[in-house]
Amino acid sequence: GMLWWLQAKGIAFPKGQLKWVILRGLFGVGQTPSFLAVRVGAPVGDVAALTSTNIAVAALLGRLLLGERFTAVQGLALVCSLGGAVLVCQPTFVFGSSDGEQVPVVGY
């Protein structure tokens, strides 16, 4: 809807940029379900940690898709950021279950 409205108003994107605008929109859509998850009972810390990793994910995608480079210090910061999110969330497949049950690594 919005793209057609912009085009109707005479606002166009430079050639090759439309795919990036659409990808940004698709990734941005992931933010809303995250905040809705908090409303239905997901731990706030977990959701906040996972949604704050968007900068690290953007850096990784920039490296993989666009060939951008980052320094060793930036790489270390990336690893620390993602590692911190794992420590905050404490997933059961890494830390085990708090009630003493065995938790399978692959789902069931």
Give a description of the structure.
The chain has 108 residues and is mostly helical. It is 66% helix and 0% strand. It contains seven helices and no strands. The protein has helices spanning 2-8, 18-29, 31-39, 44-51, 54-66, 72-89, 92-95. Helix 3 packs antiparallel against helix 4 (44-51) and helix 4 packs antiparallel against helix 6.
Q: What descriptive keywords fit this protein?
A:
mainly alpha, 7 helices, 0% strand, flat, disordered C terminus
Question: What's this model, at a glance?
Answer:
By secondary structure, this protein is an all-alpha fold.
In sequence order, what are the helices and strands, one letter per element? HHHHHHH
Shape type: flat
How would you state the average pLDDT, rounded? 76
Helix coverage percent: 55-70%
**How many helices?**
7
- Please report the total strand number as a whole number: 0
Q: Structural class of the secondary elements?
A: mainly alpha
Biggest β-sheet strands, sense, barrel: none
Query: Uncertain segments of ≥5 residues (pLDDT<50)?
Result: 103-108
Radius of gyration: 19 Å
Spatial separation of the terminal alpha carbons: 40 Å
Proportion in β-strands: under 5%
